[in-house]
Write a structure and sequence with these properties.
With 395 residues, the protein is mainly beta. Helices cover 7% and strands 55% of the residues. The chain has one domain (54-394): Porin (Beta Barrel), CATH 2.40.160.
């Protein structure tokens, strides 16, 4: 028979041991219940709830490697180029009683020509219909698959990103309208015979958009101020108008589409895709106006561009397109005409991964005296081409 005194001693000893163990653990944080990352399906795949908040975040990245070959115009011109970019982006969203509050940032780090570059592409806040920050310009439609972009030959707007504040109204049935103020300094292309004065008015840009099952349509317009430092010249206002469309081709494989855009500008040549007209060994800086006799003559420019993108299989596509544009800074005697033909093939072996190739041919025509004066080494050579091999991974 176990004695009661022995049982009591055992219980007291057990409690004492527990007390000593607790005393030894006073400096150690007790493990808490595991916090698992919660997904945010409301905004699509990849979003997760930021712990301790009701906001959702998506972290994005991209690596892009390009290898380019082109016909050199002089002995000092490189015949090949390597370009590598690493992108980082954050998409943060919060539902509020006034609507969605979204903050987005994307930047890239680039290595090309043995030099490093850091570029802030986008950084904006959206609240209800308001967008403020750095964004893709309202003018752009984004339907062209060309790797080379506008590339100074005309075609579509030269600017990839701009600082802006604007408001978008959803009109229903697929329609929306946007009015924005954009930094005019992104668009100023200088003057001939004068000096650009300080800005007084931002660019005013408007857009009417429609999206439906057949594709999308876009009408756009802009007003651009031009000011000089001359005492007898007041502010002059240029303009740009344009239309663009993307049409899905239901009789072909999924994703196959036809796109186009047409632009007419006066005193706002950036909207027509002109910055520095540099083709072959010819180079000329585009201008918004020419000042002569105390008056500013606005530069006229217009362009037509388009193409077709066809999916041969769900993962392999080809594209063929081109553009024709005219740049007239001071009368027909100085009109330059630019042409481009672009051919592409792309393969997406898995989601978010692209291997693509592109050949970009460009040509310029104009008055013999104007063209010849621009060539110091190769004479009247007014065409060039660029071949590009691209590897791109989005994650």
């Amino acid at each position: 028979m176990v004695h009661l005194k022995s049982i009591g001693a055992g219980v007291i000893g057990a409690f004492a041991a527990i007390g000593l163990a607790q005393g030894a653990d006073l400096g150690v944080k007790k493990p808490s219940a595991a916090e698992y990352v919660k997904t945010c399906p409301t905004y699509g795949s990849g979003f997760f709830v930021v712990p301790g908040t009701t906001s959702c975040l998506k972290v994005l990245g991209r690596v892009r490697a390009d290898y380019m070959i082109e016909n050199p115009t002089t002995n000092t011109t490189n015949a090949n180029r390597f370009r590598v970019r690493g992108y980082v982006a954050f998409d943060h969203r919060t539902a509020t009683e006034y609507g969605l509050l979204r903050t987005f940032v994307r930047a890239y780090f680039q290595r090309e020509n043995a030099a490093d570059t850091t570029v802030l592409e986008q950084a904006f806040i959206q609240f209800g219909g308001i967008t403020a920050g750095r964004v893709t310009p309202l003018w752009e439609h984004g339907w062209s698959p060309w790797f080379a972009g506008s590339n100074n030959y005309g075609g579509y707007s030269f600017i990839l990103y701009t600082n802006t504040i604007g408001y978008t109204a959803k009109l229903g049935s697929g329609f929306s309208a946007t009015l924005a103020m954009e930094d005019s300094r992104e668009r100023i292309r200088g003057l001939t015979g004068g000096t650009v004065a300080g800005t007084r008015m931002p660019d005013i840009v408007g857009s009417l958009d429609y999206a439906g099952s057949f594709g999308a349509l876009k009408l756009m317009g802009a007003v651009h101020e031009i000011r000089t430092t001359g005492p007898n010249i007041n502010a002059t206002y240029g303009y740009a108008i344009g239309a663009a469309g993307k049409i899905n081709l239901p009789f072909a494989s999924k994703g196959t589409n036809l796109w186009f855009n047409a632009v007419l500008t006066e005193g706002a040549v950036s909207y027509a895709g002109y910055n520095t007209i540099a083709i072959g060994s010819f180079s000329r800086a585009a201008v918004d106006a020419t000042v002569a006799g105390g008056k500013a003559r606005l530069t006229q420019a217009w362009t037509l561009a388009g193409g077709v993108q066809a999916y041969l299989t769900p993962t392999i596509w080809t594209s063929l397109g081109g553009s024709y544009a005219q740049y007239d800074p001071s009368g027909a005697a100085n009109t330059l005409k630019t042409y481009a033909i672009v051919g592409q093939v792309g393969w997406q072996p898995t989601a978010g991964f692209l291997i693509g190739a592109e050949v970009f041919y460009r040509k310029i025509d104009g008055p013999a005296a104007t063209i010849t004066a621009g060539f110091a080494t190769r004479g009247n050579d007014t065409a060039d081409w660029v071949g590009r091999l691209r590897f791109q991974r989005d994650f």
